[in-house]
Amino acid sequence: MKKIITVAIIQPDLHWEDPGANLSLFEREIMDIREEPDLIVLPETFTTGFTMNVEDHADGEGKTVAWMREMAGNKGCTIAGSVIIREKQKYFNRLLWVEPAGKGVHYDKRHLFRMGREQLHFSPGKQRVVVALGAFRFLLQVCYDLRFPVFARNRGDYDAILYVANWPTARQPVWETLLTARAIENQAYVIAANRCGTDGEGMDNCGLSRVIDPKGNIKARLDDQPGVLVSSLDLEELQSFCKNFPAHEDADDFQLRL
User: Fold this and answer.
1) In this predicted model, what pLDDT tens digit does every residue of 197-237 receive, in sequence order?
2) How does pLDDT run across 112-146, given as a tens digit for each residue?
3) Which backbone phi and psi does 217 adopt, to 5 degrees?
4) Model's pTM, two decimal places?
């Protein structure tokens, strides 16, 4: 299994509540990536922006999953990003992980952003999800989850954390600080995909998508404009660091109740 993988993050200025326009945007960006990524990451609610108009814009027919399967198959890589999903009269902010052969895994956002009234419209996830890609194991997380370190605590069961977000410029220092903290405290890579631009509610988003190594160093980053970031993750390098600096062996035991 591959111990070095290539990750591409697409950072867009999303079209507000317009899935068709956003899927066209991402399709162009995906097919224009010249490198051969193993994983392409799209931001949170990448088809609509962070809207609370869930009844009008939720995907209840699997159209987005079908599109992701088509793109993953065409590009020969895994594609991940979150969308608004309707399931049995409930709505979820669902991070979809779709492999090139069509197999999929999903994580439903656990921590709903009450300052944006998200908890009034969505149901929270009930499971912590780790998924494999090559020899790597990824913990799946969405935006506001970043503020809750216990939920992201590394139990020796993952090598990288994937965050997808619609993170605002007003809280940019929090984004930068906590992403670095999650990498350092968990001795893991962090892959963070955010959007940029102003959404339909007038909220400006900071962009600043990045890849951070287990020491807290920024391997690659974007600014506040649309773009594509490509970086690599090296599992043997990670394992060597953890062996030579085994802080995880002194971590406190705990149980997480969901």
Assistant:
1) 999 999 999 999 999 999 999 999 999 999 999 999 999 99
2) 999 999 999 999 999 999 999 999 999 999 999 99
3) -80, 140
4) 0.97
The ranges assigned to domains in the chain are 4-247
Torsion of CA 27, 195, 151, 245, to 10 degrees: 90
Residue type, 125: G
Residues of the chain with pLDDT under 70: none
Place of tokens 């709903």: 112
Quickly list DSSP for 203-239: -EEE---EEE-TTS-EEEE--SS-EEEEEEEEHHHHH
Phi/psi of residue 218, each to 5°?
A: -85, 110
Phi, psi torsion values for 115, nearest 5 degrees: -65, -20
Give the contacts of 195 (CB within 8 A, at least 6 positions apart): 11, 12, 13, 14, 43, 44, 46, 49, 165, 166, 205, 207
The pLDDT assigned to 256 comes to 80
Q: Does domain 4-247 have CATH number 3.60.110.10?
A: yes
| Cα 47 from Cα 42, distance rounded (Å) | 10
The string over 230-239, giving b where at least 16 C-beta atoms fall within 10 Å of a residue's C-beta and e elsewhere, is bbbbbbeebe
Which active-site residues does the annotation give?
A: 44, 109, 143
